[in-house]
Amino acid sequence: MNAALVADALAGLTAPRKTLPCKWLYDATGTRLFEEITTLPEYYPTRTERGIFDRHGADIAARIGPRARVVEFGPGDGVKAVQVLGHLRSPAAYVPVDIAADWLKDAAGRVARAFPALEVIPVVADFTQGFDLPLAPPLLGFFPGSTIGNFRREDAASFLARLRAALGEGARLLIGADLVKDPAVLVAAYDDAAGVTAAFNLNLLVRLNREGGADFDLGGFRHQAVWNAEAERIEIHLVSLRDQGVAFGGRRIAFAAGETIHTEDSHKYRPDGFRALAAEAGWREEALWTDEAGLFSVWLLGT
């Protein structure tokens, strides 16, 4: 039994509007499915961001300078770290931080194989909470993939402030942020034709059954992605297909037909909005890079 998962899920599922924290999407299966999502034709963020890293790699490296000690928050499969470290001049250390220990080990191994002389120190931790880093400042944070969009805007500012504090004096941050664009493009990216994103979302219920002792019927829910124009975010939900009840945490949780569990947000930014968010958290813009179509942005922030 995963006590932290159960506590978070019970709090969310007994709220007036049911929610589940998106961090629990990323068990081994969820992480694998997300990596598959990043290769789908509809999902533009990963390939667009990687294109920015390649096209502007020399400029990024020049601005960061030599002997960078890089701390990546949520390294995924480590591919982006290998890409960016390959552009940097003689990087000195790489510290990936993630809550998923098995996936973290694989990502750290990928980087270590690509750079045998590089010091690689994986840290198993929930990077949305407080944790200690094994290196002294100055440090370069690396937070690609627009994961910042998963935070509500007020929480995003607090999180960026915590990163600044964790990285310490002289901190800098290389961060990706997805941009506002045609809603049809956005919805397709989060509700692909092959159904991989749906499987990723529904896997959260599989995890609650396995690690929390719940009895969710997966056939009783479907994946939904909607664009909230006012909040400028994609909202991900699991929709109950009928009136039903689920046993979980010693309780019976009722669902009405059409009722949803809100599992994830992906906020999209305009450059001025992200600049203001960073400033609120104590960061200042050093550089901004985008692709030619203006789909995605990569920022270098300093303190």
What about the largest sheet? Answer: 8 strands, mixed
- Percent of residues in β-strands: 15-25%
- Could you say how many structural domains there are in total? 2
Number of helical segments? 10
What is the element string, with H for helices and E for strands? HHHHEHEHEEEHEHHEEEEEHEE
- Rg estimate, integer Å: 19 Å
Helix fraction bin: 25-40%
Structural class: alpha/beta
Proper CATH architecture of the largest domain: 3-Layer(aba) Sandwich
CATH class of the largest domain: Alpha Beta
Under CATH, the homologous superfamily of the largest domain reads Vaccinia Virus protein VP39
**Distance N to C terminus:** 42 Å
Q: What spatial form do the alpha-carbon principal axes imply?
A: globular
> What is the number of beta strands?
13
* Contiguous uncertain segments of 5+ residues: none
Question: What is the mean pLDDT?
Answer: 96
CATH topology label of the largest domain: Rossmann fold
